[in-house]
Amino acid sequence: MGTVVQLKNKINNSYSELKSSVEDKLILVEERIKSKLSSKVELVDEMTSYHLRTGGKRLRALLTLGSAKLCDYQKGSRDVNLAACVELIHAATLMHDDVIDNSDVRRGKKTLNKIWGNQSSILVGDYLLSRCFEMMVEDGNLEVLKLLSSTSAEISQGEVLQLQHKGEVDMLEETYLKIISAKTASLFAAATKVGSILANQDKKIKDALEFYGKNLGLTFQIADDTLDYNSDLKFFGKEIGNDFFEGKVTLPIILLYQKLDETKKKYLKTIFEKEERNNDDLKFVLDLIKKNNIINDCYIKAEYFINLASNSLSIFNNSKEKDILKKLTSFSLERNF
Q: Helices in 2-117 by DSSP H: which ranges?
């Protein structure tokens, strides 16, 4: 029985459990986000209101709240403010991402750039980031300010690195990990570390939660990239092939390239060098991925980061919060959204 089948036979409700455990705080986070996004400029207000209606998992906000609870933070509402801040950083990067990728749809709805154009989308993304910095300053903690501002810079560098290697099917696995570490895992790491900073924990605890968040983020992104090529999981509600049509080289393509003979390697390169890829190209690649068992290989790679994330929590005493966060490492790979 393969790794993928084993994972899909498990039931893991850790995301719902985490959401339930901080539900009262999450409601306040939503209110905080809404208040920070309001603007006297009609177009800004219209675009941010539309963004709010598209929803989202709020996973990064949940990680901030969950890690703060794990560290026994009880005073005030700084966790709410910073959870909202982390979520807005994520939202801003998505707006910029959609412009770079020329995306038409996100979460089943038209993207901001599709409706209002690239210029407005970039400026509204910048507006969100400026709001984030206001919230960091309001918090008043220099360690938090330094962490979240440096994370914002790291995300941007990850975007540029990905753009630099667009279409390179012979990309090193190491380069791919650098890209997703900066683009995705850095904000996960910041979210979990913020919780420990709020509770005035020592360096060991902060480092453990940062390490947990980073490896959780790597697992999350590998799973996301793998879902894009997993034709067996179409019913999970995610259209396959988005990354492929955008010319993004992710782990499934990197591992596939390593297994192909020279003729097929050359043909795969040709496909990704084209301005546009078609459904026949996708079918060709999907057939090769299935034949070479690439999906399973990707999940095996991800399990390495699951173990790193899970083991980093051993420093904490047993608790409901620790159990939820530990199970969340497997959920990030098993999830269907």
A: 3-8, 14-21, 23-37, 42-53, 59-70, 78-101, 112-116
Cα torsion at 277, 280, 283, 284 (round to 10°)?
-90
Q: Are 221 and 185 in contact (CB under 8 A)?
A: yes
Rounded distance between C-alpha atoms, residue 182 and residue 164, angstroms:
14
- In angstroms, the CA 80 to CA 61 distance is 8
Residues 272/254, Cβ–Cβ less than 8 Å: no
What are the angstrom distances between the C-alpha of 155 and each of 74, 85, 109, 290? Answer: 30, 15, 24, 32
CATH code: domain 3-334 is 1.10.600.10
Tell me if the pTM is above 0.90: yes
CA distance 27 to 245: 37
Per-residue pLDDT tens over the stretch 20-75: 999 999 999 999 999 999 899 999 999 998 888 887 889 999 999 999 999 999 88
Number of H helices, E strands in the chain: 18, 2
Q: Output the CA–CA distances (angstroms, integers) from residue 253 to 122, 166, 198, 280, in the order listed.
A: 30, 12, 40, 16
